[in-house]
Amino acid sequence: MPLHLYDTRHREKVPFKTIHPGKVSMYVCGVTVYDRCHLGHARCYIAFDVIYRWLKQSGYDVTYVQNFTDIDDKIIKRAQSEDRDWREIVDENIAAYYQDMDRLNIQRANHYPRCTDYVDHMIGIIDVLIDKGHAYAADDGVYFDVESAPDKYGQLTGQSIEAVRSGASGRVEDQSGKRDHKDFALWKAAKPGEPTWDSPWGPGRPGWHIECTAMSLDHFLNEFDIHGGGHDLRFPHHEAEIFQGECYTDHAPVVHHWLHNGFVNIDGEKMSKSLGNFWTIDEILAKIDPLVLRFALINAHYRSPIDMNESLLKDAERNYSKLVDMYSAMVKKLGDAEPVNLPHPDPSSSQPLSKGLGMLELMGEQFAKAMDDDFNSREAIAKVLTALREMAKVSDSGLEESDHHAFAHYCVEWLEETAGDVLGLLPTREEILEPKEDPRRVELAEKVESLLAQRSEARSAKDWETADVIRDQLNELGVVVTDTAEGPVWDLV
């Protein structure tokens, strides 16, 4: 079937139609670079990476833009608290962002604009909005007048502007130049000690919402195909973008398809620093393999919330190991010889090889069908796992050497096209044939070996209390120890 996606604005699955045949323009809201990325960022950018990969696999020429918010209240506060230049913090966290995304095998977007490079463009848009009666200047900045375009309110969330009016009781924020509590800032007047830019309304800096309108329209002019981001961005950020973009361009819709990924919870609770369950990507990757985390996060539909817990990670690790083990086994059977011709795929055949090829062909078709159904990566992974079982059956059926060699070629290509190119879950062939030692293991080796030596001495002395303390220390490092006749053997959990 043709690709269908769930459009937040329409609240249903719709056929994917591009503005220009064969081309896709996609903008995804990026991070505010005041700190290291966290698990929620990993979920978002892995989800849109899979979408990006599938669009390209489907033959589209995709232009993918993802921004960096490199000036805002959090960045300023961090710079002030650390007595550092705000630009230093921005550059440091952008470098960390690329490092985190690379480890998760997230392909780079085509463009990564920074909002501070677009301040003049934002000023131009704000000026036009004022001229058109959609914005007004106040002592503390410039605000968008939501009542100037009431028909655009609630397009992503379904909120009614009439209900908001009736419940507002005329309230307006204290210390604000807003005329109405629904209005939002386009420009913020300068405050002491903050970075500022000159504007027709005095020195200041742009509001958060206007930056994405400026950057997306700069890359895509009056309209583009896909705008993505986390579920929490629907309101106010993305609805503000609809107001700004459509009122500025007099073009509707500016965004043809809105996509939003679901939240990540930790053991049933929303992730937050106050609850002590907040993980940066760097922190979680110190404990688990990056591609195991990627597997866990895409083994759910991108719109569904994920409850990250130990059981989910163990399940991901087990199934990811099955995938890598099969891929490794097949890669090692490739050899240098050209593969012989394989029999016709037939899932109803009594011959194991022909039947297995038929089942793999069927799984490939169902994989594509799942991805065309709103990028259903969970169902796509299920087809990959079924394919692994078929590969194992055929491999264990007593094939001739030449058939086994040819079948390995087929399986490697099948896995690379699905689990590799689309889901981004495979190591490279070079990594399989020349494996590198896990950097986490290298980092911990000296400390673990020292603890194991102390543990052995304690056990020999029958000092079980000390041995138990050392065992707990090893567990905290994510190390599991197996005692063998040759001595203790350790591995990472």
CATH class of the largest domain: Alpha Beta
**Radius of gyration computed on alpha carbons:** 27 Å
Question: What fraction of the residues are assigned to beta strands by DSSP?
Answer: 5-15%
Integer average pLDDT: 92
- CATH architectural arrangement of the largest domain: 3-Layer(aba) Sandwich
In short:
It is built from 16 helices and 15 strands. It is an alpha/beta fold and 493 residues long.
What does this structure look like?
The protein is of the alpha/beta class and 493 residues long. It folds into 3 domains: 4-261, Rossmann fold; 315-433; 439-492, no CATH class. Helix content is 47%, strand content 14%. The chain has 16 helices and 15 strands. It has helices spanning 39-57, 73-82, 86-103, 119-131, 161-168, 208-220, 234-249, 281-285, 290-298, 310-332, 352-372, 377-395, 401-420, 429-433, 439-460, 464-476, and strands at 4-7, 12-15, 23-28, 61-66, 135-138, 141-144, 184-189, 204-206, 224-230, 255-261, 264-266, 269-270, 306-308, 479-484, 487-492. The strands form 5 sheets. The protein has a 4-stranded parallel sheet, with helices on both faces. The protein has a 4-stranded antiparallel sheet with strand order 5-6-7-8. Helix 9 packs across helix 10 and helix 11 (352-372) packs parallel to helix 13 (401-420). The longest helix is centred in the middle third of the chain and has 23 residues, at 310-332. The model is unreliable at 168-172 (pLDDT under 50).
